[in-house]
Write a structure and sequence with these properties.
- The protein has 24 helices and 18 strands.
- It is an alpha+beta fold.
- The chain has 4 domains: 34 residues; 353 residues, DD-peptidase/beta-lactamase superfamily (Beta-lactamase, 3-Layer(aba) Sandwich), CATH 3.40.710; 179 residues, Orthogonal Bundle (Penicillin binding protein transpeptidase fold), CATH 1.10.3810; 62 residues, no CATH class.
- InterPro entries: Beta-lactam/transpept-like (IPR012338), Glyco_trans_51 (IPR001264), Glycosyltr_51/Transpeptidase (IPR050396), Lysozyme-like_dom_sf (IPR023346), PBP_transglycosylase (IPR036950), PCN-bd_Tpept (IPR001460).
- It is found in: Cell membrane.
- One of its GO terms (molecular function) is peptidoglycan glycosyltransferase activity.
């Protein structure tokens, strides 16, 4: 035996000491590096947990009407809204030590490494639930060392900043279950047609097996493989103490009913309305496109499904399938501005252009109520009279002569009241009123009613020659229906983020912008288009639909060469309907000229079916009602063949009695009747 020399011994000690020192330095460096990683992770703080999720849209009764996604179904639910059996099955098969480790299962990693070495291939995974969640949240699913290092770092950050329940909830909401379903809620609805909270043990144990290989273990792909995987999961649940052996055996024997259908509609409900909602999210709530599409928002809207279906049904019923005419419809609750129904065209797939919101069309005579509100403010009353006859207006400022015409060139050729002029839509009366008030008056009044489109300061403005939007006209009439309060068209009542936090909630605001007494007087005048007592040289404009109506309404029709309108309201609902061609082609067929009125009448009746019949209620003060003779607006006597109860702003009601129908009138009365005074407007407007 060779004895080690003193020199050799010293050399060995020297190497050993160097090795120990280097090892200590290495260990210290590793410790410093590890502590540095932990410190850096702490400085960075909690990583965001937001992942792409479907934004969901709901009707006013909570019914899901649509979603925004990129082919991926994602719905976030809290851990309390997931079946405990699914939670336990997932933990049991994926990471049984989840609640005890700190992101990495060292024992499992060692076992996986040994198994891989023995097989000379990667045969066993060791990723914990936290690691898988980190990968799903932030990383690509490649197999590079760079990705693995990033995954480890994100795992540390998750474990340092979130509770185990937060991590488990996030994991269950992000894993892929196949067929476009991400997360337990989408998967549960797809495979079993129910919420994740309602899954049975049998369903939960089968669902928990799918993420290992959706193409292999999905029951829709292979029931045999799915049942084999389910048996393994149930066995692990027994082994880990979650269930009893008999319970597992019963669950495994159960026959499951599969649906294989995503519950959200393929064809969207009210697509024009939903587009308008998305525009509101972007332009009013200032959310970006990605958040709107994939932010997991829950958007609660004002849509009334019954009224929306009624609107679409009435349009389909009245508009001929062979016609190229288009329709825009907006229905609104006048109390708060909530949009209850919207149709922007006859076929969204062919044309998503929203004519209810985007199109600017001439309103025709539907602008007259705004003109006459301004007139009421200037002292006009329902009994104010002007002469209706063929008239050419001449102007001293060099403006060209203007000759408006009534429908079919029919004129009273005599005095008519404002109430009758509105009911029969007399254009001469409207233009005279417009010029008397000043051409700027209607423009300013339109702004007060919420119209934003630019209007030309011309005589023909009184006949609706400047374009408007359907939605703004519905809103303008809402001011009359609610007694003069400004409301804004509203599509969204509340928006929640994916965590259920409310990020927007509609506040009720109703500022008074009109005088309630004048608004009511005008509303009462607008009921006249359905009242045959106001027939004169022409029938009231609502005469063709009077027999279709079963409750009190106020409204106004309007038409131009290329546009047909009907706007009207009850105390509960305002609806504006436009019909016309996109290219501005003249409406020539008689049937097409009736579409707007018929759709409006049919919709209002169907939409309000089952609701109480309400009359327009006069304000407690500021108005007075008297019986007048419709032909001249004077106080009616018992001898007048037609008497109509009419409201006036208090103090402006007529004081003179009608003498046209007095029997056995004395000579003085007849003399007074024959010596009529010159009308007030003749002194101001000699051309009238």
């Amino acid at each position: 035996m060779e004895i080690m020399t003193d020199h050799g011994f010293r050399k060995t000690v020297k190497y050993l000491r160097a090795f120990i020192i280097i090892s200590l330095i290495g260990m210290i460096c590793m410790l410093v590096l590890f502590l540095g990683i932990l410190a850096y992770a702490k400085i960075l703080g909690a990583p965001p947990l937001a992942v792409p999720q479907s934004t969901l849209f709901y009707a006013d009764d909570g019914t899901l009407i649509g979603e925004s996604n990129s082919g991926q179904k994602r719905y976030w639910v809290g851990l309390k809204d997931i079946s405990p059996d699914l939670v336990n099955a997932t933990v049991s098969i994926e990471d049984k030590s989840f609640y005890s480790h700190h992101g990495f299962d060292l024992k499992r990693i060692a076992g996986a490494v040994l198994a891989d070495i023995q097989a000379f291939a990667k045969v066993q995974g060791a990723s914990t639930i936290t690691q898988q969640y980190a990968r799903n949240l932030f990383l690509e699913h490649d197999k590079t060392w760079n990705r693995k290092l990033h995954e480890a770092f994100y795992t540390i950050r998750l474990e340092m900043n979130y509770s185990k329940n937060d991590i488990l909830e996030g994991y269950l909401n992000t894993i892929y279950y196949g067929n476009g379903a991400y997360g337990v809620e989408a998967a549960s609805q797809y495979y079993f047609g129910k919420k994740a909270a309602d899954l049975t043990l049998a369903e939960a144990s089968m669902l928990a097996g799918i993420p290992k290989g959706p193409g292999l273990y999905s029951p829709l792909a292979s029931m045999e493989n799915a049942k084999r995987r389910q048996a393994i999961i149930l066995a692990t649940m027994v082994k880990n103490g979650y269930i009893q052996k008999d319970t597992a055996k019963t669950a495994l024997a159960q026959t499951l009913t599969l649906t294989g259908i995503h519950t959200t509609q393929k064809v969207k409900v009210a697509p024009y309305f939903q587009d308008a909602v998305k525009n509101a999210l972007k332009n009013q709530l200032h959310l970006d496109d990605r958040t709107i599409a994939l932010g997991g928002l829950k958007v609660f809207t004002t849509l009334d499904l019954k009224q929306q279906e009624a609107a679409e049904r009435q349009i389909q019923q009245y508009v001929s399938s062979s016609s190229e005419i288009q329709v825009g419809l907006v229905a609104m609750d006048p109390k708060n501005g909530y949009l209850k129904a919207m149709v922007g065209g006859r076929d969204y797939e062919k044309s998503p252009f929203n004519r209810a919101v985007q199109a600017i069309r001439q309103p025709g005579s539907t602008i007259k109520p705004l003109l006459y509100y301004a007139a009421l403010e200037q002292g006009f009353t329902p009994s104010s009279t002007m002469r209706s006859e063929y008239t050419t207006f001449h102007f001293d400022d060099g403006q060209a002569d203007y000759t408006p015409h009534n429908f079919n060139n029919k004129y009273a050729d005599g005095e008519i009241t404002l109430a009758q002029a509105l009911a029969v839509s007399d254009n001469i009366f409207a233009v005279k009123t417009h010029l008397f008030l000043g051409e700027e008056s209607l423009i300013e009044t339109a702004k007060r009613f919420g119209l934003s489109t630019k209007m030309a300061q011309v005589p023909s403005l009184a006949l609706g020659t400047s374009g408007v939007r359907v939605i703004e006209m519905a809103n303008a009439y809402s001011l009359l229906a609610n007694g003069g309060k400004r409301v804004n068209p509203t599509l969204i009542t509340r928006v929640e983020d994916y965590n259920g936090h409310v990020i927007f909630e509609k506040k009720q605001e109703a500022k008074k912008v009109l005088d309630p007494a004048k608004a009511f007087v005008l509303t009462q005048m607008l009921t006249g288009i359905f009242d045959k007592k106001l027939n004169g040289y022409a029938k009231v404009t609502g005469s063709t639909i009077i027999n279709d109506l079963t409750r009190p309404y106020a409204g106004k029709s309007g038409s131009t060469e290329t546009d047909s309108w009907m706007i009207g309201y009850s105390p509960q609902l305002v609806t504006a309907v436009w019909a016309g061609y996109d290219i501005g082609k003249p409406i020539e067929l008689t049937a097409e000229k009736t579409y707007a009125k018929n759709i409006w009448a049919g919709f209002m009746e169907e939409a309000l079916e089952g609701k109480p019949v309400k009359a327009f209620t006069a304000p407690k003060e500021g108005v007075i009602g008297v019986y007048v003779a419709p032909a001249n607006g004077k106080l009616a006597t018992k001898d007048c063949p037609v008497r109509r109860f009419t409201y006036f702003v208090a103090g402006t009601e007529p004081t003179e009695y009608c003498t046209d129908h007095l029997k056995n009138a004395d000579p003085d009365t007849k003399k007074q009747k024959n010596n009529k005074k010159v009308p007030w407007y003749k002194k101001i407007m000699p051309w009238s």
